[in-house]
Amino acid sequence: MGSTRFYDYSENDKSIVIGYTFIAVKYWRTGINSSIKKLMIDYIFQYVDKIYFHIGSTNLEIESINLNNSIKYSI
Known about the structure:
Elements: E1 2-10, E2 15-23, H1 32-44, E3 50-53, H2 60-68
Parallel strand pairs: 2-3
Antiparallel strand pairs: 1-2
């Protein structure tokens, strides 16, 4: 199916990054990525104040998904 991960935890900033997401084409546009990210966000906000998303600058598909979910990020 794919993978995604937490990384670059900052104790000082109380932040973490979500990225390195690779989803098999078969699962694109099925809601899997959004569901996974929601689970990750709900879990990690118990431990951090900020979450950053690492999104490739040419990944327009995920950019539109994140905008539809009102997730704010910078590239």
